[in-house]
Model the fold of this input.
Amino acid sequence: MHLGRVAGTLVASRKEELLEGMKFLVVRQLNADNEETGGYVVAVDAVGAGVDEVVMYASGSSARQTELTRDKPCDAVIMAIVDTWEVNGETRYQK
Done:
């Protein structure tokens, strides 16, 4: 699992039939200090996340393990919206 911040949305009017009806979000990867690393990923949104929210996402074969993405051709899925994030007793993020 990885942490990221939703940077925006992605619309694809023509796509693989198995992806019809799915919402795509552009996620900027975060490190343990809640700093953007510069990397981006396009992920299927399985939880109703919005722009600027901090999320947990899975990639690779793990991305195909949710009810929404099972057996679908996706490489990343947002599976949680982060409420609080703490490292070594220090709050790094609070919604």
